[in-house]
């Protein structure tokens, strides 16, 4: 008998919206988003809010007032649930179960909405609960961090940590819609504000030279937490991510090429070998510095372009090196793990120019070790922790 061929195609559509003060009763966006494709009104909705965001911004009361004003389109099925944020929420599956219990008890179905207000970690946790409850209910992502708004929240994945391993259990499940409210960004601690910027530098470097020019031009303003350039950064970065997902040909990451993981082979390992002293975005900044320096040493990227990237990263307040990188063996183990993770051939991005990445399948470890040494020397030339020297001429790399 011949094999029966099954070719299943599923089309997903989600919009990424931008606003400020989403829960201001005068702001129609949330009501519009939930009614635009609704089969029945009012739409039933359950909110999960991150505790820290609630503490800083009193979101629950605002949600209650909003839904009261928009009762013709929205029915709040119960008071918003509060959950912790940060990585801890991904470490205990009881939080996923708590969300699923609420979905069950309130009788949410696949035409109802589960809305999550929080950082990337809570988005991942609630996203996983939403994707698995009834095999998938509608998820509204309302990210509250830079990284959530410009990167993780606009993507199609979710996961929690399991068996002590990061993101071990999760699904590919596009949201129903993403709503980025810029006001949330204002209360982030500096480190969290900055971390998402590292991902913007990353995507600019591999995909969009003009965006890198913008980030370079706005480095000081971004470091000083000015909102106008931050809004543009979030918008452009989110657009590049969405474009990659929609047109990159591998939305559910079945192949072994993952361009958006530029700089991440070392970043993942750095988080681990620094015992998570380095946050993800901080490790990514070092990972970018490293692969950019390597790209220069390989002769692909000009020295001037390499220096520009290091200057931007330092100017944003990132360290370019961590003392734990000294014994390179452990770091290089990250390359092997990365290959295993992708299953098969090592495929990582390097740069041929600012805005143009390309795949390589092998790494010259002695040259990479030289890049690490260069960055160590380089970072000693900055004053204080991550504070750039005002004199570019002090960048030692220039002397090579
Ligand atoms: N699903 C994906 O495609 C994807 C992609 C990248 C990263 N991620 C995941 O995202 C997570 C990181 O997300 P993140 O960078 O948003 O960090 P996070 O969610 O861990 O939040 C960082 C800190 O900021 C706090 N916080 C959140 N919003 C705040 C606000 N508005 N004001 C003040 N404090 C606030 C949180 O309580 C937490 O302490 C990781 O778990 C990572 O694995 C997922
Ligand atoms: Zn990342």
Can you put this structure into words, describing what you see?
It is a single chain. 46% of the residues lie in helices and 15% in strands. It has 400 residues and is of the alpha/beta class. The protein folds into two domains: 15-187, Rossmann fold (3-Layer(aba) Sandwich); 190-218 and 251-399, Up-down Bundle (Dehydroquinate synthase-like, alpha domain), CATH 1.20.1090.10. Strands 1, 2, 3, 4, 5, 6 and 9 form a seven-stranded parallel β-sheet that branches. A two-stranded antiparallel ribbon has the order 7-8. The termini are far apart. The chain binds nicotinamide-adenine-dinucleotide and zinc ion.
List its traits.
single chain; 400 residues; alpha/beta; Rossmann fold; Dehydroquinate synthase-like, alpha domain; 2 domains; seven-stranded parallel β-sheet; 11 strands; 15% strand; binds nicotinamide-adenine-dinucleotide; binds zinc ion
Report helical residue fraction.
40-55%
Query: Kindly, what is the distance between the CA atoms of the first and last residues, rounded to a whole number of angstroms?
Result: 67 Å
CATH superfamily label of the largest domain: Dehydroquinate synthase-like - alpha domain
- Overall tally of domains: 2
What is the CATH class name of the largest domain?
Answer: Mainly Alpha
Largest sheet: 7 strands, parallel
What molecules are bound to this protein?
Answer: nicotinamide-adenine-dinucleotide, zinc ion
What value does the Rg take, in angstroms? 22 Å
CATH architecture of the largest domain: Up-down Bundle
- Supply the helix-strand structural class: alpha/beta
Kindly report the oligomeric state of this protein. Answer: single chain
Round the mean pLDDT to the nearest integer and report it. Answer: 93
Helix run count: 16
Strand content: 15-25%
Spatial shape = globular
- How many runs of DSSP E, i.e. beta strands? 11
H-E order: EHEHHEEHHEHEHEEEHHHHHHHHEEH
CATH third-tier fold name of the largest domain: Dehydroquinate synthase-like, alpha domain
